[in-house]
Automatic annotation (TrEMBL):
Gene3D superfamilies: Cytosolic phospholipase A2 catalytic domain. Belongs to the patatin family. The keyword Cell division does not apply. Coiled coil: none annotated. Its EC number is 3.1.1.-. Residues 53-249 form the PNPLA domain. Keywords: Hydrolase, Lipid degradation, Lipid metabolism. This is Patatin. PANTHER family: OS03G0784100 PROTEIN, PATATIN-LIKE PROTEIN 6. A motif (DGA/G) lies at residues 236-238.
Amino acid sequence: MADPSIDVDKLSYEIFSILEANFLFGYDTRKLNSTSPPAGTLKPSVGKVRILSIDSAGATDGLLAAKSLSLLEASLRNRSADPDARIADFFDVAAGSGVGGILAALLFTRGKNGRPLFTAGDAMKFLLENRRRISSPSVNGRFRRIFRLRESKAERLYRKTFSECTLKDTLKPLLVPCYDVLTGAPFLFSRADALETDGYDFKMRDVCLATCADATAVEAVEMRSVDGKTKIAAVDGGVATSNPTAAAITHVLNNKQEFPFCRGVEDLLVVSLGNGESDSGGFGRRSMTPGPGDFVRIAGAGVSDMVDQAVSMAFGESRKSNYIRIQANGFNSGRRSPMVSKSSNASETQRLVAVAEEMLTERNVESILFRGKKMAERTNADKLDSFAAELIKEKERRKLCVFPTVLLKQATPRTSSATMSSC
């Protein structure tokens, strides 16, 4: 590997060249990304930062997002002609809440061979096989105090899956929210923070346990950072933010150390994956008497939709090419499909898989800038396939970029020292 200081020196020189051209020779910085700059002027070129955001469980227990990721990865492999292509190869940042946090952790944690622990297909299989353990992490209604004597099924599952991996062992910047009862505020597990200090580095198994902790349980999940200095008492990431897209965008726009040339949403490519409209009464008709857990899901769904609308408005006209949202938002909720009927002999898991597959064939209701909403022109599956093409183009475009689009902080395993290297 090349000496990281060389990349930094090269970047510093190129930045100085821009400033010199701008102030000494009147170079127009608005032309940095123009395709036909004036003859004799410097044409720095940078790519777009690619963000993946995954919602908390929703109506499909995470299977809509898992199915979407599997479809996206298959499309990326087909279009790139690389049978080993992974989701992590085509994104710079991942954010996930609740079960979305687990999916992000599976896809972006580094395995022993330096590649992601899971493919998207394997991550979906993981969810299918362990759905009950993930959604029921408590033991007799209590959490961590009992775990010291007896681990829950969820904790055993995460320990087996992630072993001793921490946030530092993720391949790309990762953001996973939960709600900290001790401070009464959202808490965001972040790879960038972990690389700054061990006080914000947590075991990946604890990150997953925290973001999926049942918000209606008796006690929150108590955990500490790897150095023991930071303590939190966590509940469901969906309580903090069920749709972490805005958190991911804010992280990128304010993290100039890792994303030095990202100036606004026009410099982003964002995929936001929902998990179906929260529905307290099953698919189709809503219950008129929702329980405590249903209220949490309903509130989360409302916040998720608000985030989507706000982000969509922020992108403006560029949202057609720079932002896609995959969600089943109830437009066809009044229609019952035979394959998702509760009278079916299929298992609950099979039913949810069928629901996720059907949702990908539907068209969403999308927000229009200052004009309300309308039906999308393309199905969810079509949008994913089209965006795969954009991700391929972006990866190829970076080969011609003058500047590195992303400068990921790196750390020596199990230490807090960080250096810079281009990506």
